[in-house]
Amino acid sequence: MATVVLLAVTGLGLGALYFLVASGLSLIFGLMDVLNFAHGALLSIGAYGSWWAASGHLPGAGSSGAGFVLAVAFGTAVGTLAAVLLELVLIRPLYERPREQVLATVGVGLAVPALLSAIWGSDARTFPGPHALSGTFGLLGARIPVNRLVLVGAALVVLVALRLFLGRTRHGLVVRAGVEDRAMVTALGIDVRRAFTLVFAIGGAAAALGGALGGLYYGSVDPGQGTSLLIFAFVVVVMGGMGSVAGAALAAVGVGLVQQFANYYTASGLGDLAVVVLLAVLLLLRPSGLTGRLA
């Protein structure tokens, strides 16, 4: 029983990490029809920004208490800024040229890890997380890592915030209307471009937050971390339904649980294969994914 509880909670933690990465990817694709292959780069920027700040390079930031919160906020802010620059400089001129758009984001996705390797080396760097989050607590006979609950809590906050943004805010409604009929919204005097930049910023912030908390989950950061998590993020987005944030949340939970249980009860590494099989079966039964709509 204790083993099942441990695997379930750690699977939820892993699923929460996948959702933080996939939510921004799903939001950007669903609202802007942009398949952003540079999303993993934004995650890596957030991870390294948080690591740099938590290592004591940013005044007031550190590896404990409020200092760690400041470090995570700094990494998230740096990732958000990078996302805004990416949209303004690279994506905006290519909205009507999707093929070049994909090539450009792939290039950024390859260039950023190479740049991080050139600056800090290709070896993993130990992530200085707070001591309070490095311990465990008891649950039904199992010892659960505290940082898994942090990931789950962050994912829930992001999910609720995105749902409120899409359905209850003026900017969310403007963006949704702009996707349906950009010319009409522009004719009403609304600058759709600013709204699209905001969406890209929110997606980048979610990715950067995932990178920062991913360092806490893995205990280290490395240049290729964003690329590896991006693969599972794409799986989650496809399984949840292209453009559906709620579907991405459900799919992330399923992928995290399947991966953890398969790795434990079968040979190590077969969890990835189990996720691919799950994706194939779901697409055969429901080609549009779990929801197939923006929600």
UniProtKB/TrEMBL annotation:
It is a multi-pass membrane protein. Keywords: Amino-acid transport, Cell membrane, Membrane, Transmembrane, Transmembrane helix, Transport. It comes from the Bacteria. Its main location: membrane. The chain crosses the membrane at residues 6-27, 34-54, 66-90, 102-120, 149-166, 195-218, 230-257, 264-285. It is found in: Cell membrane. Pfam families: BPD_transp_2 (PF02653). Belongs to the binding-protein-dependent transport system permease family. LivHM subfamily. This is Branched-chain amino acid ABC transporter permease. It comes from Actinacidiphila acidipaludis.
